[in-house]
Amino acid sequence: MSLRISAGLPTGMEGLTYPIPFSDPETIIRIAQAAEKFGYDSVWGNDHMTTQNYVRAEFPVPPRFWEPLMVYAFVLSNTTTLKVGTGVLVLPMRRDIVVTAKQIATLDHFGKGRLEIGVGIGAYREEFKALQPDSKLERGDIVDEGLQALRLLFADRVASFDGKYYRFKDVELYPKTYQQRIPIYVGGNNANNIRRTVTWGDGWLPAGMEVDRLGALVKEMHDMAEKAGRDPKSIEVAPQFVVHLGKTREVARARYRESQMSKHLTSLAKSTLKEQKASSEDINLIGSPQEVIEKAMAFRKAGVTHFLGLYFAANSADELVDQMQMFAEEVMPKIR
Predict the structure, then answer these.
(1) Is residue 303 helix, strand or coil?
(2) What is the Rg, in whole angstroms, of the alpha carbon atoms belonging to the chain?
(3) Strands (E), the chain
(4) Which CATH number do you get for residue 202?
């Protein structure tokens, strides 16, 4: 299996990993077209519906959070070979799974199979509570039901589901996806997401994880897959990383610390990355090209098959595109 390398697209990252203003429609298309030009496999955008508390405290104006599936309709129409993926589509914020499935299938057809879907619970519980303040259900339960429901809708001619959160009856969702089996990745670092991946997914999408821990969890996932009768090699290991390249390690780290990305990872240390022991600079692909090559190769040895959604730390669109090009020219050929 050849290594896939993809770039992050700031569909829902303004104010989180990039300053405000940053993510206007023209910039989104420019970044996607640059990714295609530089040889990236795909672009992966994020899914946010409302502003997080720490972003509201920092910026006087709200960010632009674009709905990723709508954005991808434009990205696919403005590119020819680039794939698009959701890293991740937050199922707990999407109350109608049939509408979500219809959107996915439609986009898959219009993009001629250039769509992949990552799903997860979302990094910020405060977003979920803002959208559904009276909900008593756990987000993990919603993702479990959502994955089952999507697989039924994409596979069965007539699908019915009766869960605590999602319910539908005798739905004939046509056309099915353009791809015979649309790839679904499950996002998240904990063991429940490995279980979900083995049960319903085609790939596991962790983030910000030390190489030793990643390697151990990949082994656990492979063992679980074998027990479930699945070929472990059929499951992609597709972590997300932050990237910033500099002439030296010191230059790269100093510039990274000036980025909004650094503040974002600090905020995640209280939620989705709370089990992370090492610093974000040690874990992520931050440093000189040679240092980043060595880190990437160590992750590949640990079982990574797809560097999915490399998020380039940058404070302007120009810097982001420059970083993408530098990685494509100086790192990509050495790790593929």
Answers:
(1) coil
(2) 19
(3) 4-9, 42-45, 83-90, 115-120, 159-162, 167-171, 184-187, 203-205, 236-237, 242-245, 285-287, 306-312
(4) 3.20.20.30
Residue 196 amino acid letter? R
pLDDT of res. 263 = 84
Q: What is the mean pLDDT of the chain?
A: 95
Is the confidence at residue 83, as pLDDT, over 70?
yes
Residue 204: both structure tokens together: 């596991």
Task: Give percent of the chain with pLDDT exceeding 70.
Answer: 97
Return d(Cα 1, Cα 258) in angstroms, integer: 37
Number of domains in the chain: 1
* pTM for the full predicted model: 0.95
Q: Give pLDDT tens digits for 127-175.
A: 999 999 998 879 999 999 999 999 999 999 999 999 999 999 999 999 9
Contact 186/196 with Cβ under 8 angstroms?
A: yes
Looking up tokens 């004939």, which residue turns up?
172
Domain range holding 261? 4-335
Could you tell me what percentage of the chain is helix, strand and coil, using 3-state DSSP and rounding each to the nearest 5? 45, 20, 35
| 38, 92, 269 from 5: Cα distances, Å | 11, 28, 25
